[in-house]
Amino acid sequence: MLLALLLCYAGFVALCLSLDRHHGELLHSKPSPRRRLGLRVGGWLLLALSIWPAVHMAGWSRGLVDWCAVLMLSGLLLVLLLPYRPRLALILAGVGLLASPVAAFATL
Amino acid sequence: MKEGFRQAMAWLHTWAGLIFGWLLFAIFLTGTLSYFKGEITHWMQPEVPAHAVDDARSVAVAQRYLEQHAPTAARWFIGLPDSRDPGLSVMWQDKIDPGRRGNFIEKMLDPVSGEQLQARETMGGEFFYRFHFQLQMPHPWGRWLSTIAAMVMFVALITGIITHKKIFKDFFTFRPRKGQRSWLDGHNAVGVLVLPFHLMITYSSLVIFMTMVMPASIIASYDGDTRAFFNELFPATDNAPALGQPGKLLPLAPLVEQARAQWDGGHVGRLAVNNPGDVNASVNVSRAGSDRVVHDFGSTVSFNGNTGELLRVSAEQSLPMAIGGSFYGLHMGHFAGPLLRWLYFICGLAGTAMIGTGLVIWLGKRQLKHAKTGVMPFELRLVEVLNLASMSGLLIAIAVFFWANRLLPATFAERSDWEVQSFFIAWGLTLLHAMLRRGRRAWIEQLGLGAVLFMGVPLLNALTTSEHLGVSLAKGDWAMAGFDLTCLGSGLFLAWAAWKMQHRSAVQPRAERARPLTLKGEVH
C-alpha cells in the first residue's frame, strides 16, 4: 500500500502543478505549455501506474479497494498541505518519488 | 437553458441537503463509529481480557464449557474471538420451536481459562451500528427513515456534482481563513476528493435495503409471498433431526481445521452444533466475513458430529448474489485490516464533515443579510439551533455514552438501557442549551464541553479500570489503547475548534465594520 500511496501522491502533485494557479503558488512562475502537458501526462500516468502495486500486493478485489482508499486519502492530504505547508507538499512528492524504487524492491 | 438547469439542481441540493442534513450527519457519524464496532465493545467491556487469538484453543474451551453447562441443548452457537473483539461468546437454545425465535442463553468466556466472564451489561459498539440504520425507532420505521435519508443523500450528491461548476479546475483548491469562501472550499474539497466513497456508501446502503424498498418484483414473482423468496435465497441448512439416542460429540477443533482447508486457509467466524448430545449431531462451520471483499451470505461447511464425516460444502454464490454481496461487503468493510479500516474511518469522517460544512454554509449565507440588525428571523434561528444540537450536541451525547459506561455501577439494574438513555438525555439537553444561548456562545460552550468530555475519557478509564493507557500500550492491546488515544485526539480537535470560534468572535468587530460597505454594494 505504501508504494501505491507514494505514486498516487506524486501523481496528484504533478496534476496540481499542471494548473496555472497552483504552479504560480508553489513555484512562482507560469508553466510553459510543454511543461504543463508533461506534468498532466506524467500525473495521469503515475495515478494509473499506482494501481499495479496495489493489485499486485492484494489481488484484484482487495487491491482495487486499497487503491481507491489510497487515491482519496493522498488527494485529501495534498489539499490540506497546500495552503498550510506548500513547500512540504512539494518535498514530500520528491522524497516519495525517490523512495518509490526502494519501496518497490522492498515489497514486490 | 443550461444555467436554468444548474440553478434548479442547486436549489434541490440546497433544500434536500438542509432538510435531511441533520439526520444524515447523525447517520454518517454513528455509521463511521461502527467501523470500530468491535473495538468500542472491547473498550466498553474492560472485563474481557485480550489474548492472542488461537481458534483451536477457543473452540476447545467453548466445547468444554457447553458440554458441562448445556449438554442437553438443542443447539449451540460459538462465536470466535478475533483481534478486534477478544470475547469468546457461547450461546445455546434448549428447545427449537419451528417458526419462532427461541430463547437463547448467551455467556461470555475467557478464551484461555474457560471461566465465565462477568462482563458489564452494555450494547457497546452495537448501539452506534443499530442507531445508524434504525434510529432507535420501532421496527420498520427507523429503517424506512434512514433509507429515505440515503436516497436524499444520493440526490444531494448527484445534484452537488452538477452544481459544482469547476470540478477539475478547483480540484486542489482550499483557501483557509476566508470565512464563507473557506467553508465552501472545504465542502467542495471533501465532497469531490472522497466522492468515490460517498457514492459507494450511499448507493450500497440502498442495495442493502433493496428488498424492503423495492419489493415489487419479488411480490410479482412470488405472488406476494416474500417469505418464499427469502427461503429460496437463503435455504435453511436442513440438518438431520435428533434420533433420541445419546452420542459422543467429536472434538470440534479438528473439524474447524478441516473447514479452513476447504477455504484455502480462510478464517472461521462461528460454529453451530445441532443436537450436540445425539447420535445425529451435526456441526456447521461458518466462514468469517473478514476473509473477502465480496460478502458471502452463508458460506458453511457441515460435518457429522459423531463420525466427523464431511456432509456438505455450500456452493459458490450466484452472480447476482455476488454483486449484492460486494456492495454489502464494501459498505460494511468487514474485510478491512487495521490500516484500511482507519482509511474507511477517515473517509466516513470526511463524509460527516461534508454534511456539516454544508449545513454551516446554508446558515452562514443567509445570516450575512441580517448581520447589521443583529436580529435573526425565526427560521434562521431554528436552523441554528438544529445545527448546534445535531452536530456539537451529538458529539457530547457520544462522549456521555462512554462516560455512562464507566460511571454506572456494573450491578446497576438495566444498566445497558441506561447507557442508551443517558445518550439521549444528553442530546436533549444540548438541544435545550442551544435554544437558550446565542449562536456563537452556544458553539463555544458545546464544543468546549465536548472537548473536556472526550479528553477526560482516557483519564476516566484509568481511574475506573485497570486497563489504562500505560497497561494497554505495554500489553499491545491496540483496540483498547487506540480507543483512548482516539478520544484524546477528538478532544484536542474539539478544543481547537472551540478556541478558533472564541478567537474569531474576538476579531468580529473589525469584520463587522467592513461588512456594511459590501452589503450596501449588493443592495444598490
TrEMBL record, chain A:
The keyword Transmembrane helix applies. This is DUF3325 family protein. It comes from Pseudomonas proteolytica. The keyword Transmembrane helix applies. Keywords: Membrane, Transmembrane, Transmembrane helix. The chain crosses the membrane at residues 37-55, 64-82, 88-106.
From TrEMBL, chain B:
The keyword Membrane applies. Keywords: Membrane, Transmembrane, Transmembrane helix. InterPro entries: PepSY-ass_TM. The lineage of its organism: Bacteria, Pseudomonadati, Pseudomonadota, Gammaproteobacteria, Pseudomonadales. Signal peptide: none annotated. This is PepSY domain-containing protein. It comes from Pseudomonas proteolytica. The keyword Membrane applies. It comes from the Bacteria. The chain crosses the membrane at residues 12-36, 144-168, 189-213, 342-364, 385-404, 420-436, 448-466, 478-499. PANTHER family: IRON-REGULATED INNER MEMBRANE PROTEIN-RELATED (PTHR34219), PEPSY DOMAIN-CONTAINING PROTEIN (PTHR34219:SF4).
